[in-house]
Write a structure and sequence with these properties.
The chain is 38% helix and 16% strand. By secondary structure, it is α+β, with helices and mostly antiparallel strands. The chain has 2 domains: 219 residues, 2-Layer Sandwich (Cytochrome Bc1 Complex, Chain A, domain 1); 204 residues, Metalloenzyme, LuxS/M16 peptidase-like (Cytochrome Bc1 Complex, Chain A, domain 1, 2-Layer Sandwich), CATH 3.30.830. The strands form 2 sheets. Strands 1-10-11-9-12-8 form a 6-stranded mixed sheet, sandwiched between helices. A hairpin with a 5-residue loop joins strand 10 and strand 11. It is globular, with a radius of gyration of 23 Å. The N terminus and C terminus are likely disordered.
């Protein structure tokens, strides 16, 4: 599974993958159909990438005098427009003592501005048949709307109004803080294994701000002052730190004129936008953490390995390696730990590729009677095979096909196109990267996958988190 931080990391990478695996008391584990891995084609038959190409997207990029980047893609197949505003600020941009600031602005930006009341922006879009959403991740905060094309000027005005005149009051801040506390309880503290991501990242990163997750502890927000919150807004939510992505049925010259009309008068930040300069030092020895959670009754093991950034050359073979390990009924981890060994109820694998180097995960929730140490041994055996021998041609074919399907499906809607273009523009710093994705995956060879597994999936670069049931950990308190 390939994860690119479209929603908060804690909700995607691990927790959302682990929770479905936990059976209710007395419930029998789900019986999965057997893997067909043993019937893979002989090694002598070479893998062939699918004969598929994607037409280049005629993406245009422009910039206003105040620094606002505008990326457009005209698509006249339906009278629809998808508009996204990407602010280049995520949880990694929070200083120590200010964790949660990026996430709280996801909510504060809906609390009204000079000419728009609280919640009115989404109501106005819904009234014309549109939809709106927002999310925060490690690297960005994104506001997205899809609506009938004739209302494009209205939505541009709405986004410009909150960029230039957000209503940041103590009451709004207090309300947003309560919402974040509820999200924390729902997504982190409440669910089984909900704390795994937070504890794993705290151990895996010692210097880089990926050390803390997007939905982090509430302690910093509880201590935050309104002045600090306003300073954060002034530093990051300015046109020179934003990218406007527009896809759909419109004329680019008309859109640029409207963007100048509504956004052109918003001043850029008076000082350069602060950027993360910290580099995580190379990890030279394995880190190990054991945790016990009151709501997680079965042993589990999660291993995380440091991997390079999104759009880097080695990301592509690592994504395919992750797919071969964990995606689909023929994935290696499932075949070895679930179908053949009956050691695990569920296995996971996910690459979290972001603007700066991040982590790739593998792991499992164990069946009753097996320990986290049993799971770690079995997972390591599967990884070792990836490191010492090329993958089977049939496995590479399957990973190629899975990737091609995902990229094609992402182009099926204007919103999917805007998601890809925005990520390329903000995380990759180049919107043209959106046209290189498929070819870069299809150039990956079995030797490339073996090479990156040997380079990155090593013991010295790993962080291992073992989850032991409380009874097995002599009554350790939750999360300790």
């Amino acid at each position: 599974m390939f994860v690119t931080r479209m929603v908060p990391r804690a909700a995607v990478c691990l927790m959302g993958l682990l929770i479905p695996a936990v059976p209710l008391l007395g419930q029998k584990p789900v019986q999965h159909p057997p893997s067909t891995q043993s019937a893979s084609r002989p090694p002598s038959q070479a893998a062939n990438p699918p004969a598929v190409t994607l037409a280049p997207l005629p993406v245009e990029s422009h910039r206003l005098a105040n620094g606002l980047e505008i990326v457009t893609l005209e698509n006249h197949r339906a009278p629809i427009v998808s508009l996204q505003v990407w602010y280049h600020v995520g949880s990694k941009d929070e200083r120590r003592g200010q964790t949660g600031f990026a996430h709280i602005f996801e909510h504060l930006m809906a609390d009204g501005s000079a000419h728009v009341g609280p919640g009115e922006e989404s109501r106005l879009i819904e009234q014309v048949g549109g939809t709106s959403n927002a999310y925060t991740n490690d690297d960005a905060t994104v506001f997205s709307e899809t609506f009938p094309a004739r209302y494009l000027a209205r939505v541009l005005w709405l986004e410009a109004d909150r960029m230039g005149s957000l209503n940041i009051t103590q009451a709004n801040f207090d309300d947003a803080r309560q919402i974040l506390g509820a999200e924390r309880r729902e997504h982190i503290d409440g669910p089984p294994y909900g704390r795994v991501t937070e504890d794993l990242y705290a151990a895996a990163f010692t210097l880089h701000p990926y050390h803390h997750i997007t939905i982090g502890p509430m302690t910093d927000l509880d201590k935050a002052t309104l002045a600090r919150i306003r300073d954060f807004y002034s530093a990051f939510y300015r046109p020179n730190n934003a990218t406007l992505v527009i896809v759909g049925d419109f004329s680019t010259p008309e859109v640029l004129a409207s963007a100048q009309k509504y956004f052109g008068g918003i001043p850029a930040s008076p000082s350069p936008v602060p950027r993360v300069t910290a580099k995580e030092p190379p990890q030279t020895s394995q880190r190990r953490v054991t945790r016990s959670y009151a709501n997680s009754p079965l042993p589990a093991v999660i291993e995380a390995f440091h991997v390079p950034s999104r759009f880097s050359a080695n990301q592509y073979p690592l994504v395919l390696a992750s797919a071969i390990l964990s995606q689909g009924p023929d994935a290696r981890l499932r075949h070895s730990l679930v179908d053949s060994g009956h050691l695990a109820l569920q296995v996971i694998g996910a690459g979290n590729f972001t603007e700066d180097p991040n982590l790739l995960f593998v792991g499992a929730i164990l069946t009753p009677g097996h320990s986290a140490a049993d799971g770690e041994k079995a997972v390591n055996a599967v990884i070792e095979k990836m490191r010492i021998a090329p993958v089977e041609p049939s496995e590479l074919d399957r990973a190629w096909n899975q990737t091609a399907v995902r990229l094609i499906e992402n182009r099926a809607t204007d919103q999917g196109l805007a998601d890809q273009i925005g990520e390329a523009a903000v995380v990759g710093h180049n919107p043209a990267l959106v046209n290189q994705e498929l070819s870069r995956y299809l150039r990956v060879s079995a030797a490339d996958i073996e090479r990156v597994c040997r380079e990155y999936l090593t013991t010295q670069q790993s962080t291992v988190l073992l989850v032991e049931p409380q009874a097995a950990s002599q009554g350790a308190p939750p999360g300790k």
